[in-house]
Fold these 2 entries.
Entry 1:
Amino acid sequence: MLRSSAPVASDSPPVLQRILLVALRHLRVARGVNTLNPDALLAQLHWRYAVKKFDPARKIAPELWAALEQSLVLTPSSFGLQPWKFIVITDAAVKQKLVAVSWNQPQPAECSHHVVFAVRKALGENDVDRFLDSIVATRGGSKDALKGYRDMMTGFAGKAAEQGWLREWGVRQLYIALGNFMTSAAVLGVDTCPMEGISPEEYDKILGIEGTEFATVVACAAGYRAADDKYAQLAKVRFPATEIVRHV
Amino acid sequence: MLRSSAPVASDSPPVLQRILLVALRHLRVARGVNTLNPDALLAQLHWRYAVKKFDPARKIAPELWAALEQSLVLTPSSFGLQPWKFIVITDAAVKQKLVAVSWNQPQPAECSHHVVFAVRKALGENDVDRFLDSIVATRGGSKDALKGYRDMMTGFAGKAAEQGWLREWGVRQLYIALGNFMTSAAVLGVDTCPMEGISPEEYDKILGIEGTEFATVVACAAGYRAADDKYAQLAKVRFPATEIVRHV
């Protein structure tokens, strides 16, 4: 079951503060302070495209990047298990090296921040326990109270490993992160280019994660389009809703 | 290579109009008319959670839903191939039937719009050609000019089918759509609950797509949280950025 919030642990401590915070958040949303209107969202999703040529001189401002990094951290995942690592590359020499293992596409070098989405290859009981520790640290309560949840997750991971689809389950979660990241960037006015056309094994070597518990899955360059990227001028090609959306 | 825009076809017709539109869009973005500020984005991503209990009385307004449906249509995909179908269920009887094949979770029945993400199981030359027709219809030019692109895609699909990972490639694209959809909903102030805990085969039967070219992958309920969904009050549990983000 895919969900971002784990079951309630009893005895969560700072109840009053939390209620006030949540109430405040509801109020702000109710007033529309933090939301976009539908036209603005669609304008940004139309504005977005897979940038071929970034402007190497334009860097993402630190406060914008901090928000984008948090959007990665906040990505929902199955059981909340977050089977991932995000590697953010701004070092010019490393970025340049990645071009050759990205089908010679220039985006890794020319973008501002190149993000590598790496999956946790296995999911042992220790990983589940680390997650449960994190729940208890955040919400209070005891780990014992989460035993049912623990059993469900270790049972799931065991079955998935046995049947050979645990890693692909993790990869799917990373694609949620990729979708979330591109949309988050678009609503902030930051350009991206998702890149499946890379050599994951060569990425692993260059980033020094070969043989570790993580492996490169996909990358996404972020930054700002060059003024002369001709792809920015092209009309977006999509099948019409009448073909790909069915109403029941 | 994952990208949403296909190569440039020559002779695209309504050039002036397009340039004006693009210029207008750039201006609006430059003025920040359509973008969120970073704090507002993060407020919405914190506000988002996997809703357990929807308010069955609250429906998503038509203009909001239209935008969310467009966000699905605009999802980027590998080569731009859009190997998907989105099934939007508002019929009460069908929604109720889906509960039993969703581990008895009530969200499909209680939400406003229940979205099923279905993958195109195979990708033949006819599918590639349909996509190329769509490029030509949108951008003008001739299909012949896209022959290199066609060869790349059919070569890719053939290899992926032979090696047995074509369907999983498509599923990954659907998870981009899922991530995009949840984030789009969050910035509009609409609640969601991603649901991997479903029986895809039973969904296929209920939706009448068993044996067709599409198959259910994952679902996402959308609507508004019930005032008494206790999960809304819980602090979000995430590993800290220091653990899951690495800077190079």
Entry 2:
Amino acid sequence: MALKKFSVEGKIVDRFQVEVEAGEHSITIDQPRAVGGNGAGPCPVEYVLAGFAACILNVMYVVAQERCVELRGASVRLEGDLNPAKFMGKPTEDRPGFQEIRLVANIDADMTLAEKEDFLAAVEARCPVSDNLASTTPVSVVLEEKVAA
Amino acid sequence: MALKKFSVEGKIVDRFQVEVEAGEHSITIDQPRAVGGNGAGPCPVEYVLAGFAACILNVMYVVAQERCVELRGASVRLEGDLNPAKFMGKPTEDRPGFQEIRLVANIDADMTLAEKEDFLAAVEARCPVSDNLASTTPVSVVLEEKVAA
């Protein structure tokens, strides 16, 4: 299959409040009022967890169809811990991002525990967001001036 | 500084359509109609790009304040390419996730090109989402039954 390109554009609206355009959709991102934001939307790392949650659930839907399993329902809860020190410019040995991400899945389908474990392992192995978080991904961050030059 | 915990919960609403709760906010995620979704919201990997976009812009705001730079405006555009083959269950050697993520930043402030480059490098180094994408992050995906047991 051919590579598929995804793209988004975002800009600062007010301090921490950001508006991102993804195709026909618009996404509002912000920090809580307690840390100086307007509280207009979830914060950036919550969107990463949300994308991971949805990616796992989307792959569940695909794999269930392949295996002719009736997926009556599925839910996930995710947690991640990070030290905001580096983000805030304070001295720290810690990395800026999540030190660990934990996902717990609830699957409502007629499968044994062993079948659910096999199902979930197949789902995780095929999940794009899981791959990008667990493994390294080349990331380039450049100024517009350097692209235009 | 103490570790800060972030958490979200998500569930399948209809096929690829997912609803995620992040604190007081609700996020709708879906696939386009062309691939079998309802088109009710951006897709999971677009949310990851959006989280990355906003994270870079949030760190820009923090670093600009530290450096007493007036950030009149800032915007970013992001692109990522992935092969959907593994997600779809087709034979492939490719990884399921983005093979590369490119971010181009536009910074409206009274800085020379060299100052903008230094500014952007500091921002990238302190950005939590950049860290989680570019480096490895321990990810655990387990069944509710295994947690409860």
